[in-house]
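Help!! Second protein's tokens look totally different from the first
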Amino acid sequence: MMRIKNNLGWLIIIFLSLLPIVFWYFLKPISTRFISSTTTLTSLGQITGLVGMAMFALTLILSARLKFLENYFGGLNRVYVAHHIFGSIAFILLLFHPLILAGK
């Protein structure tokens, strides 16, 4: 039971990071998003930007030393480990966002 609770924080953060993709998916028909190489690159650029910004926002919450987060990650040190990992991934996604959009 404790192992599930310690991993619940990771699952919630991953879910919240990918949630913007769900909203993005329902804004426009998916058949028009990947019809050509230009629209495919635009769609991938949008996805990397959305997920990168969501992850960046969540890293700010992870760095706030909120007591209840320690219970879901297994201690403050593991919260900071998650902060570091998600911050690194967010940085990479936000770095590739304009590069992918420029590839159109």
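Here's the second one for comparison:
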Amino acid sequence: MKAIFTLILLLLINCSFYAQVKIGDNPSLIDLNSILELESIDKALVISRMSDTQMLAIQPLKGALVYNTTENCVFVYDGTLWKSLCNNGTGTGTDTGTSIKVTTSNAAPTDNGLADFWINPDLNNSTSIWDGSNWIALDNNPIKGNGTPETNVTNSIAGDLYIDSTTGDIYTYDGSNWIPAKTQLTADNGLTMDTTNNIQLGGVLIKPTIIETSAAFTLGITGLEDGDLTTDAIVTVNPITGLLKKVTTTSLLREEVTPITAIDGQVQFTPNIVITDEKKVNVYRNGVRIDFTVVNSTTIEIEPEATCYSGDKIRIVQFY
């Protein structure tokens, strides 16, 4: 027993003299700047292990280390607070109020502390921060994800933007629904689009089209070329439907001629068509224009001074 005590005393004196300790493999090799070295290829250093409650109950020297079994992480004491050494984006566990935890996962963490961060790799590494009640996206406009926004986004507000990273499609939220925004524009129904996506007036109508005007907002066309009454058509407007149609210029003014051979003393005559406007009717007796009056819509009467003799040629010309 005395020999063992003497050996221990010698070891302690030797350690104090050199002020260096090497434990494990190669005990004779120690760096000049080391006070303690551990070397092993099959054994590990295990530091003090304690729960979160136990760790917070002690106030050790500054620089003390413990393995927090609640956080599953090593903590260091800075002289005032315990700081986690696991803020590398993969930490899990309950926040102690003394560190910020960053979690990388495709599902929202549930053991959150104020100001914790969550990175979702399934949403292109979108980042959110825990406000004490909810995860608040830091890059929430535009939001990105693989697939449609209905399957990836919650708590949206009107005006939010979403980009499907798989297809490149863009969506906007109108307060109730996600509305897809076409990335490829098209133009039709009287409109065309050139190669630089400029939409221009001029194209085939594919459905009935109405342009509504008012006394304040009228429609005008300027810069028209001079027309030709012998070849061009005239545009007409249906007074009830407002539809535009075209008619030939020859249709604008037509005449109907009714030739009649008079009998002796005859003064009344019946033309071939109904008289609608006496100003559009001319009557000729033997080639000379004479005055007349309209008896009714089917009968005219020539002036008394032009009473006919048998065989006189009466020609009634009506324009319409």
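Reply: Different proteins will give different token patterns, so don't panic. Residues 106 and 120 are 5 Å apart (CA to CA).
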